UniProtKB/TrEMBL annotation:
Function field: This enzyme is required for electron transfer from NADP to cytochrome P450 in microsomes. It can also provide electron transfer to heme oxygenase and cytochrome B5.
Species for this entry: Rhopalosiphum padi
Cofactor(s) of this protein: FAD; FMN
Record-given protein name: NADPH--cytochrome P450 reductase
Catalytic class of the enzyme: oxidoreductase
One GO location term (cellular component): endoplasmic reticulum membrane
Amino acid sequence: MENSEGVKIESTVVTEEPLISALDIALFVVIITVAYFWYFKRDKQSSSSEKKPYTIQPSSLSSIEQTSNSSFIKKLKSTGRSLVVFYGSQTGTAEEFAGRIAKEGARYKMKGMVADPEECDMADLVEMKEIQKSLAIFCIATYGEGDPTDNAMDFYEWLQNGDADLEGLNYAVFGLGNKTYEHYNEIAIYINQRLEELGATRVHEIGLGDDDANIEDDFVSWKEKLWESVCSHYGIEETGEESNIRQYKLVDCSEVLPERIFSGEISRLKSYENQRFPFDVKNPYLSKIAVNRELHKSGDRSCMHIEFDIDGSKMRYDTGDHVAVYPKNSPELVDKIGELLNADLDAVFSLLNTDEESSKKHPFPCPCTYRTALTYYLDITSNPRTHIMKELIEYASDPKDQEKLKLMASSTPEGKKEFHEWILRDNRNIVHILEDLPSVKPDLDHLCELLPRLQCRYYSISSSPKVYPKSIHITAVLVNYTTSTNRVNKGVATNLLAQLIPTNDELPQPTIPIYIRRSQFRLPPKSQTPIIMIGPGTGLAPFRGFIQERDYARKEGREIGEMVLYFGCRKKDEDFIYENELQEYVANGTLTKLHLAFSRDQPEKKYVTHLLEQNADELWNIIGEKSGHLYVCGDARSMAKDVHSIIVKVVMEKGQMTNSQALNYVKKMEQQKRYSADVWS
């Protein structure tokens, strides 16, 4: 209002007096000054009416993550810090680890800060030597098939292409990976080596965390030895002070207008009411559920075929891409937390970073209600890590509960054993912990600070845009299982999706936020190139899109190459998904061969790997003699590894190669994108 009034006044002056006099200018300055004073006086009065001595304006992840000054060196110098912890994170774990390291730095007289390399000018690493006793730590995840995370991509490329002199830079690296994948911790290992090549000094050996085992244990063990190395390198001693200082402070936002309160948006306030292209991780598209049908024919398990309507969204996808789905926690679990902590879940609050220099002002979109935070922003179903056990100790009024938490938070063999059995083996989440340790009553705002962010779930797209340009299909198994404590744990995303059943056209259709994530899992450029697809269970999903695309090309009159599919499930009459579709593709010639393995339809279990071994001649004919492509989708832990071993064996025998030559041949296939995997553990 003030600005529009100012413009109006200026317009009036110019219109009424073409020749501006000194008096006109003086009057204009007085008016602007009064308006300026009135505006900020009013703002100040508004601020003083809040219960806290500062105001909180709604902010988004995009605004949180942007900084006007990309020089982390200047921030370190201006705030008297010597420790910076960079993170390369795709799901939030590396960022969480980075925060824990930075916080612990205070115990060693090293004031720390967490930094996103995407927001920083990483060339400033050459200036770290100007800060006395400085240290840069990198918590780096390896993503996909040996790729950097999105936010670490620029830094990775800078290291690859640059030749900066990093002499005087002290560093340490912790990698986050998964041993079931071939490129285990590849990015962290590269960064660790490359920094040394550029002249930097490694203060502590690299740590490699395995998410397939116990990455928390890996991290804690590495972190303890890290600080021993730091003390030795810098000649410092631990202060012995436990740092339980909170990173965020609570702000009462009960007087904030409703239209300024987040209600589940990922980034921009009211983004679901006013959708704007392009759609991505920070700006998902609110898609209607067009189809949701059961694929299993019988049995007590469920597999859903779901179609997301993207008509009018301008979203485009390619066969083989992934779709990200933003879930929300069940109301029952959210209400349970409110009940256990005797909290008002509809109170509006905000968490403000106590570090004024941090570019991350809030841990999630604020202000919002506790119900919104627990429903849309926080992960309340995963196993909490040890640092949460440690923070909960002060809230336990029963000495027995205190001792149990202290034990699980410790790094002793007994403590690690107890944490592994009570938390990991018994699969307890934060709700279960509060139920089983009834004297533990943390402040809800502190709990919201401690819990990790709720992450989107990725699904292989099971359709082709050539056939379905206005919809995205996925194939998802409903996740439900009973734990050793006789609790039923439910998959957050699949159980939400199971409830989103389309109604008739007269009623509003259910919706869910999604966006498309690009993949390297692609059909060969030439449609006549022969391919082999190995996809048991829901591993069939991307191949359904592949087959649709080749079928579309055939109907257009183009030549298509051989398509061989290996599919497996438990029982033909129970979980043979898309059976009719696949049989039709065989009948019309699109699908050359369909090899089926039903593991429980006979006394001895039969899997797709058995069929691969039996069809060694066909396999070599396509990948060896015809230079075809091979694709694997499904379980990384066993199936994908077994397939890889069989491929190497077939190449050895049919290609008359040594083991070393066969391994090199398969490696070359991977480099040429002739051997691709879309796997999960």
